[in-house]
Amino acid sequence: MRIALYEPDIPQNTGTILRLAACLGVEAHIVEPTGFPSSDRAFRRAGMDYLERVALRRHVSWPAFEAWRRSEGLRLILFTTAAALSYLDHSYRPGDVLMFGRESAGVPEPVHAAADARLLIPMQPGLRSINVAMVAAMAMGEAMRQTNGFDNE
């Protein structure tokens, strides 16, 4: 199982998600550019002392990420408020890449089009969105529950 962040723009959320990945032992991927300094040095300066414990891979662009994903034969599972299927009604596989969009803008149409599945977390009507770090934790919890744990394929 892998977590991917598409051009994240809030460093605190990114830090929380990287900590989640480190604690669960899952790979984390960042599709650049980010909306903040995201070098290892910048992360360490921000107090991310667990950075050496996360398997972090940066991709310089969406096309670079997509080329990597396709070469690995991995499914892209996009979490978006524009989906119709609940994340609880999806069947996850151990090698899936769970992608979360920018806090300010989500993901563009080419990312939606590339996704093998588009999922949402059902919410009360009239509310805009759940914090992306919370969504990542909920999604990873369900995916790991279904796939019995921590193994990547």
Search tags:
alpha/beta; 153 residues; 18% strand; Alpha/beta knot; single chain
What does this molecule look like?
With 153 residues, the chain is an alpha/beta fold. It has a single domain (2-147), classed as Alpha/beta knot, CATH 3.40.1280.10. It contains five helices and seven strands; from the N terminus they run E-H-E-H-E-H-E-E-E-H-E-H. It has helices at residues 11-24, 40-45, 62-72, 109-114, 132-147, and strands at 2-6, 27-31, 56-59, 76-79, 85-86, 97-100, 117-120. Strands 3-2-1-6-4-7-5 form a seven-stranded parallel β-sheet. Strand 2 (27-31), helix 2 (40-45) and strand 3 (56-59) form a beta-alpha-beta unit. Helix 1 (11-24) runs parallel beside helix 5. It is globular and about 40 Å long. The mean pLDDT is 90.
CATH topology: Alpha/beta knot
Work out the number of β strands. 7
List low-confidence stretches: none
The total count of helices amounts to 5
Strand content: 15-25%
Distance between the termini: 8 Å
Topology:
Blueprint: E1 2-6, H1 11-24, E2 27-31, H2 40-45, E3 56-59, H3 62-72, E4 76-79, E5 85-86, E6 97-100, H4 109-114, E7 117-120, H5 132-147
Parallel strand pairs: 1-2, 1-6, 2-3, 4-6, 4-7, 5-7
